[in-house]
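Dear Dr. V.,

Thank you for agreeing to look over these. As mentioned in my earlier message, I'm a first-year student in the group and I'm still getting used to reading structure tokens, so any feedback on how I've presented them would be very welcome. I ran two proteins. I've put each sequence directly above its structure. The first is here:
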Amino acid sequence: MSLQTMGERVDLEREERFLAAHAAAHDRIYRYFRRRTDGAATAEDLCAEVFRIVWEKSAHGDDLSAIVLFGIAKNVLRNHDRSVSRSAGLIGALRLERVYGTPAEGSAVLDGIDHLDSKEREVLLLTYWDGLTAVEVSQLLNTTATAVRMRLHRARKELGRILQKQTVSEGATE
């Protein structure tokens, strides 16, 4: 048996294991997220993340039983909840600054926004400063709403990291 044939068989076995796990648990995992999140789109995104991880695990021959998949789902949901919590704090800070005008020089949020990638900064500002939806931003920037949501997610995550880093730095100097 050649290496190519052996590699193809391993890939086929991996694919079959993944598809079997997907068929057995997808609907249950989706419903798990649907009951615990704010909408179908979020549940779909989180479900896709679970099966992305499952695909990676399938390469190592890891167990792909339903209980393992639910463990992965629980971790994905925990990460999502942490992200939502951090985002809510950032959104609140951004809205306060928008409502009460441009803050004084040295605003941690504005300083953090200045450190973002230009595309991510633009999406963040259009969404929270200007109040546009993902669809409206996508039309304005001539891209897809999915790309806008991904940039917004990355921008919030990076801004949270920057603000956390600033907070830790400020705590160390006091």
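The second protein is here, in the same arrangement:
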Amino acid sequence: MLLSGGTSSTTENSAPAPSRSAKASGKASRFRHWRRQRPFVGGLLAMLGGVEMFFSGQLDLGHLHIQLGIEGLQATVIPIVLVLLGVLSVTMPPHHVFYGVLTLVVAVYSLVGVNMGGFLVGMLLSVVGGVLVAAWMGPPGAKRGMWAG
């Protein structure tokens, strides 16, 4: 080895096996790079808002089952659409403005269709997520025209 000055049974060309922390930091670095290439936080907030609306639409208070809309169909469809829009905005970043605007429209409509938008919490999460998705400017350092098509 270099510091001990003695010879070693291993050759100098062989590198030590990477430790678990090195593998974990490599995965974290790859995830960080992937996350920065798309509107991740906005899509995540839209998904969380949809999940919150879904569970608030299935709410039971004693013997009272709270559902608004046509037989509760809207209380199921709107949250699923919001989760789907969140997933699509994260997986398909070139279409982020379209998905962001659709998320905003569906989230505002949920105020009427799903228990006051999941008691306002789900609607606010989805509206903030939709705004972040629509306002996303692309990866840092990339030219805006690259994402246009």
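From my reading of the second output: The helical segments are 20-36, 40-57, 73-91, 96-113, 115-119, 121-135. The mean pLDDT is 82. Does that match how you would interpret it?

Kind regards,
E.
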